[in-house]
Amino acid sequence: MHYKVFIIREEVDYTEALEAFKDNSFIKLEPWGMSVDHLRLTITGRPNTPYEGGKFMFEIKMGEDFPFAPPYCYCHTLLWHPNIDSSIGPGKLNICLDLVNPELVGKVDIKTGASGWTPSKTLTNIIEALKGQIHCEPPFFNPADPLNFEAGDQALNHYNKFESKAKEWTKKYAMN
To answer: What's one Pfam family the UniProt record gives for this protein (predicted)?
Structure first.
């Protein structure tokens, strides 16, 4: 019985996200295979960012404990970003985002106000946050709290160097 309730929640989240982003040309959401509990999210970099025109693919997988735990999120596209570390292999979290960190469920960072996952959060919240990271929108683009320390330091202290490398990686790894 519980399994059926969770499948309904996954379907509701997926349908809500499709509706929320149906007119957003930067977002493409689709099932990874045959089920809406495993999704492929492609975010296109917006103009005037280091990621302009790049296509960044994320995997989102809702586990058996969803919605009580966040979905597993992983960025498959190599990119130079303070909050995404391309050197971390699949199966591990390579995105620095409180919302998808299983260790931060129900917690709030007093300094930043960022909150971890709660069952009231949805797939739409996650997509908005990931889009904010790729579109360099604070608080989601946060070089002061990096996962990739070198990219974070560059973004804070040598932005031109950061921007140049991010554009180079976008052209090399995220363009069709």
So the answer is: UQ_con
